[in-house]
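QA checklist item 7 of 12: single-chain prediction sanity check.
[x] sequence parsed
[x] length recorded as 308
[x] structure emitted
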Amino acid sequence: MSRSRCRVSFARKWRRSGKTLAGLAAKRSLEAALSIFAQFDPGLGLIRHVALLAEGAAPDPEELDLLARQAEAGFLLDIPPENLWPEFSRALMGRAPGRMLHYLHDIGALEQLLPEVAALYGVPQIAAEPASVDLGDLIEAALDEAAKISAPLAVRFALLVKDVGKSDSPREHLPAHYRHVERGAPRLLALAERLDAPQDCRELAMQALHECERAHKISRMRAGPLAMLLERNGAFDAPERFDHFLSVCACDYRAYPGRAGAPYPKARLIDAALRACREIDAPPTNIEALREARAAAVALALDSCGER
């Protein structure tokens, strides 16, 4: 079926169905939902429709089937990057971005929009209980955790794409993902370029790719590496970026089973180390002396708060 015929067929089927669209909770009439496709490029309308679905009641199978047919017609492939990013980022900033991602995957749209992310579904990731979880499920949960704290767009984008290097990890090592950072970096850059993502989103995503798992593995006995982690991630010269990085880490932690809404256990350790570093008196011009002073301050802080 041609794309133009598919567009007409899609609208006619909805008119015959007599159902409301875009989520029962949204209370949108059939005409209002159809206007999404009339006013926008069909591919953009599909993204908006799925975003609305995510914020309402669960759609029925017929509705998802019709959306899948719209995706299969290839409308998403025709969206110019300058139009795609505004619509997709709006969806990512919705109240249920994880559910939105789930529906995009279900209808086959995610593979067209973000094949690097779609490839993560079905890939196991190490967890505590159970022993491994699906990476696709983790990303969905992390995005919904980000929505709960009203996280900014850069945080949500980082959570969406930071694991793209794990899709083809050697099977003999699963659920571990050795060297995923090296595989993921060029994919992340290509994905961000294709979406025309803004610079702050690209930078935080790359930072999360390199540093998030390191933050999760902070050892309480190693003051020097902890002080260096603070420095690398902007704790001293880019506090807003550092706060966003910590939000990524916290949402990633809470995505695992049994942790929804839980405090990030590394936050207390990081906060104590950061406060100690801010109180030192060392010349900023001598970087090595400054780093040694920070490491010593962190060690004392960990001792005083019972973290060693």
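[x] summary fact logged: DSSP finds 16 helices and two strands in the chain.
[ ] second reviewer sign-off
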